[in-house]
Specification:
It contains 2 helices and 37 strands. The protein is mostly beta strands and about 500 residues long. Among the domains are: about 140 residues, Sandwich (Jelly Rolls); about 35 residues, no CATH class. Strand 32 and strand 33 form a beta hairpin. It is globular and about 90 Å long.
């Protein structure tokens, strides 16, 4: 069986560790030719390949994939930035013209959707400045994540902007057809009611709920992006929308939804808000086909603003940064040990871990920050972030897949600047490389069972019997005792024809 025929959790993650060269033209942010000195870090399942020479991410298995892109962008002058996801050279997702301000960059733009991909298709991620003479640079920490669906899913995104909605202020459901616009939907075992903007899963599953609002405001002020389940607000995250628009606010976490419950993304601001082209809302089932959760998962949001952070390195999710610390668990954590005193996250088993970190900073001094994920003392991801006192609060999304060994300890660090960590800041982690659900294992305590069943190749005798892609199997000749093991022999038995002539 070819590896591309296996229905396991295909995954891919890449992030840059260098800045691109400046460009006025559309360019592939993962093409090494766009860098004076290119460097990156990546992890992937064996069926997804990346070629830096052309920036192509090629898929060996057909399926439906969650795609998440985060790009910190700097510009040479105020300009608008367009992000695109291209399959085989054709744009399948295009954002609106997001505004970038040279005095307050880098801004981080997040694009996310669900795409149906055929075997052999390739993905390219491009940026374009809409101003012909002003350049843009993709800063270090630009990332792309792809995760193959193994269950239910739904994605909505505007291919044409909605109308201005909400006033007074008034909260509204983003993908309600009353708001106008053109909505593209991709669904599996989830229904979409355009008249209400609601998604309804058919099955009880643990979903990644992820929304990206590209918003234009009728009145300057703070706006909230809210995620709802079963008609009630689960949590929300805030961002400032000013005349510098549209801007991007992204928010996500895990949520266990019962079949028949509704889910939606909503927003409220100081005045009207327009959901622009590229605004998206995703439900992505992280379980196997039977609804079993990964061996390791964790997701929670903090419930209050932190104390004032020092002008140095501060660990997000360290309870000592709060006068009164509280969090809300979105799922029951398993396989990851979080310690509030110190803000550490310890992985109990080796593997590849999807990480979504939504950081909201407020009450901040103007200046540059650095966002860092550490594994122990080693920096495994860094990206720049700029805070401006007039753009407060500001949301920063980080989405990557990282390798971890058993006992590894992750921390999430904000460096170089005073600020407060605002309520709604969230962390989500889950393991993406589990295979046990797809290759059931039988148990055997002895090589010969009580019922005389031969168990020499059962998992507790010679090792797990499943795909040889990620877990190497014991060779059959070694697992089966035979002549090579008799009477103290140390070499394999050499078969003989017993003097007979082979015909």
């Amino acid at each position: 069986m070819a590896i591309t025929d296996l229905n396991y959790h295909s995954y891919f993650s890449l992030h840059t560790t260098a800045d691109s060269t400046a460009s006025t033209n559309e360019y592939n942010i993962f093409d090494e030719d766009r860098y004076s000195s290119y460097s990156f870090a990546s992890v992937s399942s064996p069926d997804i390949t990346y070629t830096s020479g052309d920036g192509k991410i090629t898929f060996g298995a057909a399926g439906v994939y969650l795609i998440v892109v985060d790009v910190p962008v700097t510009v040479s002058g105020n300009t608008r930035v367009v992000g695109r996801l291209n399959i085989n050279g054709t744009a399948v997702y295009t954002s609106d013209n997001l505004f970038a301000i040279d005095s307050a960059d880098p801004f981080t733009y997040t694009f996310q959707t669900i795409l149906t991909i055929s075997k052999g298709d390739y993905l390219q991620v491009t940026l374009e400045s809409s101003h012909g003479t002003r350049t843009l640079v993709a800063q270090n920490g630009a990332s792309v994540v792809a995760l193959k669906s193994n269950g239910d899913y739904a994605n909505l995104f505007y291919t044409a902007s909605a109308n201005a909605a909400g006033s007074g202020p008034a909260e509204f459901t983003i993908f309600d057809s009353d708001n106008g616009g053109t909505v593209q939907s991709t669904l599996n075992n989830v229904t979409f009611a355009a008249g209400t903007g609601l998604l309804t899963p058919a099955n009880t599953r643990t979903f990644l709920m992820l929304a990206s609002l590209m918003a234009e405001a009728g009145t300057d002020g703070e706006a909230s992006l809210k995620l709802y389940a079963n008609g009630s607000a689960v949590d929300d995250v805030a961002g400032l929308i000013t005349s510098y628009e549209p801007i991007d606010i992204t928010y996500g976490f895990l949520s266990s939804l019962t079949g028949g419950q509704t889910a939606s993304a909503r927003t409220i601001g100081a005045g009207t808000i327009t959901a622009e082209k590229g605004t998206s809302f995703t439900l992505f089932d992280i379980t196997n086909n039977a609804g079993a959760s990964p061996k390791a998962l964790l997701s929670f949001t903090v419930d209050a603003d932190s104390s004032d952070l020092a002008d140095g390195n501060d660990i997000c999710f360290d309870s000592n940064k709060w006068g009164s610390y509280a969090k809300t668990d979105r799922v029951t954590a398993s396989g990851i040990t979080y310690t509030a005193d110190g803000g550490t996250f310890v992985t109990n088993s080796p593997g590849k871990y999807f990480i979504l970190w939504n950081l909201v900073l407020g009450t901040a001094d103007t200046g540059d920050r650095t966002i860092v994920i550490k594994n122990g003392s080693t920096e495994v991801y860094t990206a720049p972030m700029h805070m401006h006192s007039n753009l407060d609060p500001m949301e920063k999304t980080t989405c990557v897949i990282l390798s971890a060994a058993a006992g590894d300890s992750f921390t999430f660090v904000i460096s170089e600047g005073e600020a407060k960590i605002d309520a709604g800041t969230s962390i989500t982690m889950f393991k993406v490389d589990d295979l046990g659900d797809l290759f059931p294992e039988s148990e055997a305590s002895t090589q010969i069972g009580d019922d005389y069943t031969i168990n020499t190749q059962n998992p507790d005798v010679v090792g797990k019997q499943h795909s040889n892609i990620t877990d190497k199997r014991t060779p059959f000749s070694v697992g089966v005792p035979g002549p090579g093991n008799l009477r103290g022999r140390t070499t394999a038995y050499a078969p003989s024809l017993g003097g007979k002539t082979k015909k």
